[in-house]
Amino acid sequence: MTCTYDPSKKNYQSMRIASLHRYAVKGLSGDSLVSVTLNEGDGTFEDDRRFALLFDSSSDDNVGGDEKDAFDEANPAWLHKANFLCAFTAPELLATLLTEYLIESSSSGVRRLLRVRNRSNASSSALLLEADLASTIGREEASKFFSDLCKRKVRCVVATNTSNLKEAESKHTHQFGNTSSGVKNNNGDTRTIHIINSNTVKDFSNRIFRNDTDDFLTSTRFRPNIIVDNLEPWAEFDLIGKTIEVIKDIDDSKNTSPSSSLRLRIVSRTVRCDGVGVDPCKPELGKLDIPKLLAEHFPEHGPYLGVYAIVEKDSLKGDSGQRLCVGDSLRVVDGV
What we know:
There is one protein chain. The strands form four sheets. Strands 1-10-9-13-12-11-15 form a seven-stranded mixed barrel. Strands 5-6-7 form a three-stranded antiparallel sheet. Strands 3-14 form a two-stranded antiparallel ribbon. The chain is built from six helices and 15 strands. The chain is of the alpha+beta class. It has helices at 91-94, 136-150, 165-168, 181-185, 198-209, 290-297, and strands at 15-22, 31-33, 35-38, 51-55, 97-106, 109-118, 129-132, 154-158, 193-197, 226-229, 243-247, 263-271, 304-311, 322-325, 329-332. Helices cover 14% and strands 26% of the residues.
C-alpha cells in the first residue's frame, strides 16, 4: 500500500513522546528512560542493542543462522536475527527473564552492568547474573549464563572490544538491530531508532480483542525506542521519507541547546516477526502470531507496524548534544 502524506486530512504536528526505551542487549528486556542525550556522531540511543548473544558458528549445534563466518568484532557487519539468542529464536525462554542495564562511570572507569532476575518473582528473587559487559570477563560470564540457559553455545559480543577504560568510553558505532534499513538508507550505518505509534497499537489491539478491557496489546511488546501519542492510527506510515524534529517540553530545565533541534528522518516501515509473539508483560495472552493477525485485520498494511528513523547527523553538531525527553513534541519539518 502507498501511504500519502496529507496534512489537509490528518494532523501530523501534535505528536508527543510518551516514553523512551533502550535495549542494551539484543533480545533482552529494555529499560525505560526519562531522557536520552545524543551527541555528535551518535546514531541511536546510548548503548541501544550494543551487545548481542551470538550463536557460536563453530559449534555443532548451530542451526538456524545463515552466517557461517565468525563475527568480527573489529569489522562488524549486520547479521540476521536468526544468528542470535533473542526474542525471535527463543521468545518464551527470554520472556521469563527481567533484565536491567546500568552505566556507571567513576574515576576508575566505566562499568556497563547487566543484571538478570527471574521475571515471575523479580521483586524478591536474587540476581541470576550480574556482569560488567564493558569487560572481557563480564562478557564471558554472560556467555556462560545464557549458554547454560538455552543449552546452546552463545557468545556475548560487542562491535568494539571494551576491555579497558579508553575502549569502554568509545563511541557506540554498531547496533545489533533487527533491520537492515540503516544499512540501506544511511551509507551502511546499522544504527536506527525504532518508533511506535501508541494509537496504532490500540487500533490493532481493539481489532483483535474486540475492545476487551482485560486483554490488550502493549506498545512495549514491539520493542520501540520511542513511543508517540497524539497521532492518528497508522499515520506514521505517511511519514516515510519525511523529517521530524524535536520540540522541547517547556519543563525541560536541562535543555542546553534551545537554538537547534534534534531531527530524525523516517526511512522505512517495520516488518513484524515471531519475535513479538510473546509479551513478557502480558504472559497470560500466550503466543500470538502478530504478522498473521496484522495481515488478517489490516491487509492494506500487511505485516508492518512501526517505523524506523535515522538521526540527521548535522542536527547533532556542537559540544552540548541534543536531549530527548518524555513529554517533548515532534513535528514534521518538510512537506508542510
